[in-house]
């Protein structure tokens, strides 16, 4: 038997065997006693496992909604308000591990626990007995696929289209081994785009979708990066907009431009993105209908990117650059508000050093990985102080956390 001590960053529950070896559990909550478990990883100093039998279940435990919950959303086992409390406390704990003391931040949510994801990528499972294909996910902690017939985290329109595609494959007696996966995305209107990726073939480019974020329309590819949970993303954008204090705004790691264009299109805005596909989508969003009503902006417009030769675009007060962030450090200036939304790996060290050297007026740092965010902020605190911290529940019923930190210059700078 193993008593669960706490939930740790990453979302697993921590327990300790009698010999002192640590066990990281899925499907367990603090205070519970695990009497049976399935080991998924056995290392010299720790185990990873899935709890199979629980004694003294937590008062916060719920029956999971989906049979496949461990693959998609392992926090379906807990009360939603308890989930919010845990995420806030985990952010504070992660920052403490980097010697940064903050109170557990306020967590913002639209209270929608299920059917929020606007993108899903399914595996395909081949049933040898029935000789039929099923939608599938990978079993957590393994490469095995498990067939699914219900999933409650994506928009229902996505699952419906996915089932129709599987039915069509079965009607044509196709085999699962021909396909890598099935990618589908939908907008807030419920329109779905995407399709099958075939093995050993280039990925198909699917039809673009459009969505409205804070009243502005955006175009994006189902294949590329775009926010998974738009209603909660809008909550984050409204918070970010409150902290835009300068006329000059620099949006780094800008993707298809949704942050900078949503919160600072009325400022002198520079957006920098290193991925060619995302940059091309950003240019479309800069020049999309409704933005070009001003004649000066129209006269200064460069047409949307159609080749790989264009590496910068200016439209009115907005300037977009295709480049790695660490190669555009000369665009950082003292009179700016700098927006950071890096990948999980966090900011490039050269960027952090340049921010310390130049000391822009304010830094707005949104992150999907509070651990690398705290690592970067620990360095930035040489010249900055934390003005505010807020957490957003972009991914309900999962341990994933989106965290916003506002940094303002120390008084002596």
Task: Provide the fold topology.
Elements: E1 2-7, E2 13-16, E3 22-26, E4 33-42, E5 46-55, H1 69-72, H2 80-97, E6 106-108, E7 119-127, E8 132-138, E9 145-147, H3 156-171, E10 179-186, E11 192-198, E12 209-213, E13 216-220, H4 230-241, E14 248-252, H5 258-264, E15 268-273, H6 276-286, H7 295-299, E16 312-315, E17 318-322, E18 336-340, H8 349-358, E19 362-367, H9 370-380, E20 384-392, E21 402-409
Helix pairs in contact: 4-5
Task: Please describe what this structure looks like.
With about 425 residues, this protein is of the alpha/beta class. It has three domains: about 1-60, Nucleic acid-binding proteins (OB fold (Dihydrolipoamide Acetyltransferase, E2P)); about 95-110 and about 230-275 and about 325-410, 3-Layer(aba) Sandwich (Rossmann fold), CATH 3.40.50.150; about 120-200, no CATH class. The chain has helices at about 70, 80-95, 155-170, 230-240, 260-265, 275-285, 295-300, 350-360, 370-380, and strands spanning about 1-5, 15, 20-25, 35-40, 45-55, 105-110, 120-125, 130-140, 145, 180-185, 190-200, 210-215, 215-220, 250, 270-275, 310-315, 320, 335-340, 360-365, 385-390, 400-410. The protein has a nine-stranded mixed sheet with strand order 6-20-21-19-18-14-15-17-16, sandwiched between helices. It has a five-stranded mixed β-barrel with strand order 1-2-3-5-4. It has a five-stranded antiparallel sheet with strand order 9-8-7-10-11. A hairpin with a 3-residue loop joins strand 4 (about 35-40) and strand 5. Helix 4 (about 230-240) crosses helix 5. The longest helix has 18 residues, at about 80-95. The protein is globular. The model is unreliable at about 290-310 (pLDDT under 50).
